[in-house]
């Protein structure tokens, strides 16, 4: 029965987590993120507690892991950075699979991946269980600066426009028999992304001019 609804990150379902008010979930996410970040590196058992906590929330929310897993790709930059740390960090070295790696770098990489994964999971759970307009209302209820909330609201609306445009371009490429299978096709992808940027910029200018014509500052 569940399916994306209202926004690409939102998963439509009926659960206690979905029913919670948006501002309550925002406060819970902030508290969870602070606790995870503040946990000392030596307290590995505490990270297990945080992992069980967020997995329990996901289970209660009825959001399938298969729905969240592809969206975890947003963590890719952290993963790449974590893989580099053991090679460039200083200090005592250890041999792992024939490679000389820094002990401190391995610890830092593990902590970065752990905290990053927990944070991304918590953020995706919030997005999957809360409609964007509810998030905006929650931010307003928490008395966030009006200008900041307006920027976020416009960003969410414009993000939908850009992703829709990207979907159209992908369908057009597919209908012409294009499939990116090797580096020779990267030039086509690069030109497509360039065209998407130009279209997004032009659309943004039109929106800005329309707002100015209505008296927006």
Question: What does this molecule look like?
Answer:
By secondary structure, the chain is mainly alpha-helical. Helices cover 70% and strands 6% of the residues. It is built from nine helices and four strands, in the order E-E-H-H-H-H-H-E-E-H-H-H-H. The protein has helices at 16-19, 22-38, 44-61, 65-68, 76-88, 103-129, 132-141, 146-175, 186-213, and strands at residues 3-4, 11-12, 93-96, 99-102. The chain has a two-stranded antiparallel sheet with strand order 1-2. Strand 1 (3-4) and strand 2 form a beta hairpin.
Brief summary:
It is built from nine helices and four strands, in the order ββαααααββαααα. It is mostly helical.
Topology:
Blueprint: E1 3-4, E2 11-12, H1 16-19, H2 22-38, H3 44-61, H4 65-68, H5 76-88, E3 93-96, E4 99-102, H6 103-129, H7 132-141, H8 146-175, H9 186-213
Helix pairs in contact: 2-6, 2-7, 3-6, 5-6, 7-8, 8-9
Sequence stretches where pLDDT stays below 50 over 5 or more residues: 1-6
Kindly name the structural category: mainly alpha
What integer value in Å does the Rg equal? Answer: 21 Å
The count of strands amounts to 4
Mean pLDDT: 83
- List the total number of helices: 9
Helix content: 55-70%
The percent range for strand residues is: 5-15%
**Sheet with the most strands?**
2 strands, antiparallel
Shape: globular
Series of secondary-structure elements, N-terminal to C-terminal: EEHHHHHEEHHHH
Which key terms come to mind for this protein?
two-stranded antiparallel ribbon; mainly alpha; 4 strands; 217 residues; disordered N terminus; 9 helices
């Amino acid at each position: 029965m569940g399916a994306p609804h209202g926004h690409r990150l939102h998963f439509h379902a009926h659960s206690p987590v979905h029913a919670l008010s948006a501002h309550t979930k925002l406060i819970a996410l902030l508290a969870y993120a602070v606790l995870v970040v503040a946990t000392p590196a030596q307290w590995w058992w505490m990270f297990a507690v945080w992992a069980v906590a967020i997995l329990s929330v996901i289970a209660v929310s009825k959001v399938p892991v298969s729905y969240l897993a592809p969206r975890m790709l947003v963590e890719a930059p952290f993963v790449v950075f974590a893989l580099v740390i053991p090679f460039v960090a200083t200090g005592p070295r250890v041999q792992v699979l024939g490679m000389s790696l820094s002990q401190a770098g391995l610890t830092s990489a593990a902590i970065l991946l752990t905290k990053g994964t927990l944070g991304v999971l918590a953020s995706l759970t919030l997005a999957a269980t809360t409609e964007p307009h509810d998030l905006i209302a929650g931010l307003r209820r928490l008395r966030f600066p009006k200008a900041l909330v307006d920027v976020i609201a416009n960003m969410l609306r414009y993000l939908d426009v850009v992703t829709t445009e990207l979907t159209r371009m992908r369908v057009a490429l597919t209908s012409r028999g294009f499939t990116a299978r090797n580096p020779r096709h990267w030039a086509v992808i690069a030109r497509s992304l360039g065209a998407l940027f130009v279209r997004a910029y032009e659309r943004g200018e039109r929106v800005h001019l329309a707002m100015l014509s209505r008296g927006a500052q």
